[in-house]
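Can't attach files on this board, so I'm pasting raw text. These are the components:
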Amino acid sequence: MTRLEMTRRTALLTSAAIAANVANPFRAFAQETPRKGGVFNVHYGAEQRQLNPSIQASTGVYIIGGKIQEALVDLDANGQPVGVLAESWESTPDGKTITFKLRKGVTWHDGKPFTSADVEFTAMNMWKKILNYGSTLQLFLTAVETPDAQTAIFKYERPMPLGLLLRALPDLGYISAKHLYEGSSDIRQNPTNLAPVGTGPFKFVKYERGQYIIAERNENYWRPNAPYLDRIVWKVVTDRAAAAAQMEAGDIQYSPFTGLTISDTARLSKDKRFIVSTKGNEGNARTNTIEFNFRRKELADIRVRRAIAHAINVPFFIENFLGDFAKLGTGPIPSVSTDFYPGPDTPQYAYDKKKAIALLDEAGFKPGAGGTRFSLRLLPAPWGEDISLWATFIQQSLGEVGIPVEIVRNDGGGFLKQVYDDHAFDLSTGWHQYRNDPAVSTTVWYRSGQPKGAPWTNQWDWKNDAIDKVIDDAATEIDPVKRKALYATFVKEANTELPVWMPIEQIFVTVITAKARNHSNTPRWGSSSWHDLWLSA
Amino acid sequence: MRILSLAGRRLAASIPTLFLILIGVFLLLQFAPGDTVDAMMAQMGGGDAATARELRKFYGLDLSIPMQLGNYLWRLIRLDLGFSSIYGKPVATVIIERLPPTILLMTASLSFAFFFGLLLGVIAARGVNKWPDTLISTLGLVFYATPSFWFGLMAIVVFSIYLQWLPAGGFEDIGAVQSGFGRTIDIAQHLILPTLTLGLIFLAIYLRIMRASMLEVLNLDFVRTARAKGLDETRVVAKHVLRNALLPMVTLIGLQAGTMLGGSVVVESVFSLPGLGRLAYESVVQRDLNTLLGIVFVSALLVILVNFLVDLLYARLDPRIQAEG
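---
Top answer:
Structure tokens for the assembled complex are below.
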């Protein structure tokens, strides 16, 4: 630690320009020469059933599999698609044929060459059939043609907006090796999923369940002089407080995706040894929700839904419970999504208790005995501390306008089953995850006709033909300007009808050692390959 | 021969209990909303209905509950614990991997609690109502009243972060590849804090039981006889009192062997140890029925085994019990 402070002091003394940079920890050491070597220890909070990102789209898989396997494209520092295994791409004017030119000279970790056959196999057998969100995205994919080893031509039955595909592929475009999966009876049970083989900067070494995963430098990586790190170790630490303690003891250098408690995060943000920031997680924006069950006659009345929104003081909640890492949300498309954000000028519901009471009275739900209008069951998702606090805040706010709320807590499986399959809720609250394009995982919250039991979809027994039409039109609109306009209409309609309210916007928080360089430099850095990450001495 | 028939009778008596426990756990878990596919969807962050249907079929969840239970019991009779849906390998393998850390932690903290409980209990009983007794009893109460996760975290803060004497968590050092003696020392270092954390709470119970039991035996007639014979106090305590006062302690070990297996979830989580407690917790959250039932089965076997050993110990400590049993 002394060494680091020395560096800072020297920097301060030598140049005023550098001194200015010290205030900005991300640019402070731009002048340093990258150092090879070192072990990077990563906090891994929840073990998954497998590690292959071609068949499971979740941060818990990307944080490991994303260093070993690579996608066709990733996002650059400005959030724009940049080629990884694909070098270039083009779409025909009708949007039904998209051609990818693949990178030459890339080999799998086992030495076999990477070719278009791998892309074809992965797209048709994994993305289209198994990958969550991938199966929806690639629903109209009919074939992938491979005229030569470096060309993959995607054929679609309906127009596929190139922008949508490119923004979805960083998450939903990881490639697996055909020769390791071909002929295996069930891709899900293939042992390679737990000992992944890829083209990425790090090679899988060992997985001890419940303890750790190790990957080491790929000496034959296609990018010159990369990666810098010798190895990455993911340590399984399920207890959040214990993870913070291990960071302080120096055993862990990085805790991704809000892995620590709110209080520990606040504490470590004052510690010089760590950098605490939302930077590098812009691609993982989420909103806190209130989902209304229209099977309750009270909630089917729009005045009641608006009254509930008006009854809750969101700015107060954010300021006192969530702190700097959350902000007021304005609808289903978060403000970090610059390509689609329609601005805040859509119907909003500011805190106004009088208006809430007036709306409830107007709807005919006058207070009965003990001031009670009607009571509700609220099911909070168990994913984060913020949801639990938010549920309690909803309970207290609605109590003040005469709606007693009973909070029913469940674990993950129980929550999904009760809300999205059994529909045994009045209100529920959790996270809506925004995945860079509203068509990936946002519009399903509003589009009618979702199969019963599909989690994070419209299970509210609510249908609006106008919204359904906007969603369908936008999904196949090839012109980016028209698409953006359609999504602005979508947000306006969604905020007017309010089947789901999304009043808080959050980005995951990263806690990382101050010695890390080139970190958090893309909007999905935690999931990215870390080929340029290095540790200063 | 007598031991063998005793063992045989014990085992025969425990088999129906074992099956009742397994059926009970199976049915209890059916009441929990959601199944392992829901839990998987929760982990993945979404998926479509067709995939879910296909997965349910794969895990055999499309069958009726009595059929699932029947299948499970039939497999169990053939000593097949089934396949774990979260780990993708046979349950037996998963459990055997997790057994060593659990057993190490359990025996270490039980021995620690037993030994120091005995020692402190005797000291407290010898100086009853004087300052050693007050001190020991107060300390015991403090240990007993402190939640173990807090103890664990404070131990990490003091010994790992400030003093940097001991590792903050994990079962062994991943950085260095060690073998033989070096590895043993490394694992022992990693187990010191968890053992203390888990052991201190049990220590409090043991020392109170030992103190009470000593006080009771010290007032019995045969102790007065021994003293009247002219034996010195140390001999009286060591040879006559201790042996009789040990019986309740031995009973307690048998009872707590089970608690220790399950009760270490907290300690295993705080110290990131790959033990059975955490595995059981994860199996419940992930609705991995096969793994959970497998753990219940193995834990039940362990408890039966420990209780059998306790029975043997009884007979050794007090020959009168053998005559009756």
